[in-house]
Design goal:
alpha+beta; 15% helix; 3-stranded antiparallel sheet; 288 residues; single chain
């Protein structure tokens, strides 16, 4: 048997001491590359949509799309295919971005300053403790990515305004504009662009702070995840505030010494394949 969790051949139930086994290897087709798989699926799927930003990312949208994936023997969910992503080697390309389905607990973003590069949530909780709990094979398929750390000054902004700010240069005094690493958090715009259904166009013209109107949050799987979720983006007007997403359509900014839930987010290597599953919670995609 092929053990996809541990990436090895498993042999068992041998009845005699000497047994000959023959292994056959078949080269995967290009369509099994995860990025290609999702791009092709988008041609017929109503829960995959391009966001129309300058990068035109492909995102899962709606209240509860079948975007589940098995990673680290856990359920994660695919945010989408993100384009024009720069890795630690300076290569620019597309990567599948995923978020853990369940939070890992409630943590402070930091206790003093909203500098992600110095945040204990980043350096200790996510990229030390949590990263070291991942299987060796899953660690190998995580990309080391340049994450944008642009800040924003108001919650009363649309998804596109947050998207541009996240990739911009406006930060609180002295804060870095990028960080290179493996595990981060979702952006406010990730939550905003996850809205789908008949209200999608209306909601994308709605401030994130008002996603409790027009039935936006009820058609947005990232707003429905938890009662509260930290995001990666800091408030550029204050030294100690960052943005969060709550279920019920409430989006806001609070002091970083509060303890909302944390759901790790990461980018997969661009050559990762989808080798099984249908994306449902009971039969999530498997990776190879």
């Amino acid at each position: 048997m092929w053990d996809s969790d541990n990436w090895r051949v498993s042999v068992g139930n041998l009845s005699i001491s000497k047994t000959k086994c023959t292994l056959s290897f078949v080269t995967g087709s290009a369509s099994s590359i995860g990025i290609d798989y999702l791009v092709n699926l988008a041609e017929t799927s109503e829960v995959l949509a391009y966001d129309g930003t300058i990068d035109n990312n492909l995102r899962y949208v709606g209240a509860n799309p079948n975007n589940y994936v098995k990673f680290n023997n856990e359920l994660w969910r695919i945010i989408g295919v993100m384009n024009n992503i720069t890795d630690s080697e300076g290569n620019v390309g597309s990567h599948i971005k995923i978020i853990r389905n369940e939070s890992i607990g409630d943590y402070e973003w930091e206790y003093s300053i909203n500098d992600w590069t110095k945040s204990t949530l980043n350096t200790v909780t996510l990229n030390d403790d949590f990263y070291n709990r991942l299987t060796d094979n899953d660690q190998m398929i995580i990309s080391n990515i340049v994450w944008n750390l642009g800040g924003h000054s108001t919650v009363n902004s649309k998804s596109i305004e947050f998207y541009n700010a996240e990739r911009g240069t406006k930060v609180y005094s002295g804060r870095p504009k990028t960080w290179t690493g493996r595990i981060g958090l979702m952006y406010p715009s990730d939550a905003g662009y996850a809205v789908g259904g008949s209200v999608k166009d209306t909601c994308l013209e709605t401030d994130l702070s008002s996603y409790n109107s027009n039935n936006c949050y009820a058609n947005d799987w990232l707003f429905m995840k938890e009662s509260t979720q930290w995001t990666l983006t800091h408030n550029s007007s204050y030294s100690n505030y960052a943005y969060l997403v709550r279920s019920g359509g409430i989006f806001g900014t609070i002091n970083i010494d509060n303890t909302p839930s944390v759901s790790p987010v990461l980018y997969l290597n661009s050559n990762v394949e989808i080798i099984g599953g249908d994306g449902s919670a009971s039969n999530p995609y498997t990776l190879g």
